[in-house]
Every structure is written in C-alpha cells, then in structure tokens.
Write a structure and sequence with these properties.
This is IclR family transcriptional regulator. One of its GO terms (biological process) is negative regulation of DNA-templated transcription. InterPro entries: GAF-like_dom_sf (IPR029016), HTH_MetabolicPath_Reg (IPR050707), Tscrpt_reg_IclR_C (IPR014757), Tscrpt_reg_IclR_N (IPR005471), WH-like_DNA-bd_sf (IPR036388), WH_DNA-bd_sf (IPR036390). Strands 6-5-4-9-8-7 form a six-stranded antiparallel beta sheet. It has a three-stranded antiparallel beta sheet with strand order 1-3-2. The longest helix is centred in the last third of the chain and has 26 residues. It is α+β, with helices and mostly antiparallel strands and 273 residues long.
Amino acid sequence: MVNEAQVPAEQEGGEKAAAADAHPQRTKGVDSARRALQILLQFTESAPELTLENLLEDHDISVPSAYRYISLLREMDLIEEREKGRFVLSPQVLRLARAAEATFDYRAQAQPILNRLAATTGETALYLRRVNDSAVCLAIAESDHPISISFQPGHLMPLHSGAAAKLLLSSLPPAKLNQYLQRVGSTLTKPVRQRLEHDLDEIRASGYAESAGEVDQGVWASAAGIRSDGTVIGAITVVAPAYRLSEEHRAEITEAVRAAASELESSLAARFG
C-alpha cells in the first residue's frame, strides 16, 4: 500500500489535475446528496417506477445505502412507495415542474418571429401562453397601423374568449378542462358553454383557431398552437380589424400564422431539444 505522504508532489498534482479535468464542476463533500439526486433524476417518462433492484444495479450501492437514500427522498416528499419495493415520484414534483415551466416563457425566441409575421401580414402579432386559469400575452409585434386590443404584454385574460386563449384552453386534459368550466360556469350561459365546447373540439382536432369580436368588438383573430414534445406550450396569433380583411387576406394570414408557429416549434426543438 502506498502512503499518501510517499506520493511525489508532481505526481499528486497531476492526478488532481486529471480529476479536475474529468469533473470540472464537481462539488466536493456532497457525495451522498449527489447520489440521492442521481436516484431522483433516474425517474423518466419511460421509467416512471423504480425498484430497489434497479437502484442496486444502476448505482453500485449496498442495500442499507439504498434504503437511506430512499428514506431521505420520502422524507422530503419527493417519492412515495406505491407497493412494497416499488417507488414513484410524488405529486410534490408537479409543483417543481410548474415552477420550472413558469420560467420558460420563450419570448426571446418568439419576438423575431412575431416581427416577421407582423411585417408579412401587415397586422399585429402576439405570442401567448397559459398561466393557471388565464392566458397572458408575453410578446407583441405591432403593425404600422396598430389597433387597440385587450391582450397586452403581462395582462391576464380569460381562457374561454379569443382564438389564442381558446386554443390554449383546448389543450387541457378533460378533467382540468371540466374543472375550469365549472369555475367559470356562472359567467357562461348554457348555449354559450355548448358553443364553447363545440369550438374546443374543433380546435383540438385542427390545432388552429379563429375568432371574431370575442374579446374586442370588430376584431378578428387567427391563432395556431406551439407544441413541445406533443404538449401545447403557447400560441401565436394575428389580430386585425375585421372590416379591412377580405377572405383572401384572412386566408393569407391563416397560412402565415401556421408557418410562424411551425417556425417557433422548430426553433425551440433545435435550441432546447
């Protein structure tokens, strides 16, 4: 056995440098915390459940150590035992996911696309996303002849009015959609709710929405959804006074909106995928 004191300083320095190069950002003194986090990060969409055997195989640790890490993650309410020896993420993780999602607004990626869309169509273009029960405008590109609209950056608007807002609403899972409709039920008459549900079915099928005068009187809107990993994360929309739009111009705007949404999807996939 070689005593540490017998290792030449030059050799020791070289070994430390090599270790530093291998793990340039490795934090010292937190091996246990690192292992617990590695176990937590092992859960994926394709592997939502882990067993004790998985941990022993993948992390080369003893049974007592595996139980210690599991106990810590359970104590922090990050995992739970579904049945003996089988572990899944707890609902607590959803709160973390929502917090992370709230930071990814993509306005920097959307703005140049909106600028080009406004220049192409001659009308105002916006990027929206859903925040809880509301739609919020995160970015806007106004045309040379801007119009007064309710959707402005930072303003929270209902999800059941307007092309882009309804597109975001249509992406909710059935249970969450029903809960939303129950919460706003007092503001919707039965015929209005039936019409809304019909519109949502069509939007869900096409990934596209139109509206006329639903938010601002006399304003027509066209919107297309932006998806990431199959989930709608936002919508791009163009709004314009209905009186100055021919059927041909509306069709051109619709095509441009779809193309802009597709461009943003591709940009996000290339940058974050």
